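User: Run a structure prediction on this.
Assistant: Running it now.
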Amino acid sequence: MPIENPTNALDFDNIRWYLMHENIVVFVDKDQWYIGFMTRCKNLQPDNRCGVYETRPRICRSYTTDNCDFHGAEYGYEHLFTSSEQLREFAEIVLGKSLIVKPRKTKKKRRVVKEVKIKKRDGKKTVRLNVMK
């Protein structure tokens, strides 16, 4: 299935996410990016016929193997990615920067001792509280 061609780090990172799932490939053919689901449809019957043919999704209705290289001549593509690491390395070459987002450094919380006076019927009582800021 065609997907939008990545143009920035976020696009590439989203495609990396696809590749972190089982049986997914991403490839580029004639400057168009595609995602491939390398799994068998749950509705295929043992004879490879569709078990929900009358109510199949629109995408299945419009699908044809007429232009499919897999069923015809030898299949070729410009790039094939089978792992998120392969795509990350490719994206970093194309973009010239790392896709890995490093966590922000957080400020250390400091401990402040605060005195609070609580009045009780029998007199005053001072309580010390440790408060994190």
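The first helix runs from residue 9 to 19.
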